Amino acid sequence: FFEAIRRISAAGYEPSLDDIARASTNSHNVQDVLIPRKAAGQRYQYRFINNIGIDSDGNQWVYASDDVSLLIHVVDTTTYDDMIDGNVTNNHFMQALELFQRVCSTRWLAETPVLVLLSNLGELSKKLQNSPIHHSFPDFSGQPHDILHVRRYFRDLYLRVDRKYDMRVWVEFVDSGATAAVGKTVIGIIDKILTEKSLLSYGLQ
Fold first, then answer.
1. Percentage, residues of the chain above pLDDT 90
2. How buried is 144 (Cβ within 10 angstroms: 0-12 exposed, 13-18 middle, 19+ buried)?
3. Is 187 helix (H, G, I), strand (E, B) or coil?
4. Rounded Cα distance, 13 and 182, in Å
5. For residue 30, what are the β-bridge partners?
6. Can you tell me the distance from the alpha carbon of 144 to that of 150, in angstroms, rounded to the nearest whole number?
7. Which of the pair, 130 or 30, is modelled with greater confidence?
């Protein structure tokens, strides 16, 4: 940011996707981030409320989320073999899946669409070569080193979750790192989902 000090200190400065990707906060609280957007000559903002560092038990935030347009559930795919309490089938990926299931059974979010972002695909592809997925997921029946088979399996795990409410769920894959390219991809997905939601509310889809 030092090289761009004049730009970011100028009146009317709006952060680019690169600026947002490079900014980070070490926190265990709720972070509020505004991302400016422009479409059809209109300026608007996306407001992201990010629960940083809150584990699967710290989900009291759902009771104050009745005005949320979209819930984004981010999962690091490389955690499929990160054991919890020494149990190979109890891992951080499954912990995230269980959290997702609880969210889908929360009446406060019954009308809220959910975007599941399965991230870190580049590292996942490398990790599969040394840590076959069926060691952590015995019911996996595909090729254990094949990234396409694993992606399909992970996607199906989320789509098969028993949901108490008929929430609309999208599952998308993104690559590693907080880069501008990843940010642009995610924003594009969000634009598409919220546009579809808006059309649906007017009975146009």
1. 23
2. middle
3. helix
4. 22
5. 51
6. 7
7. 130
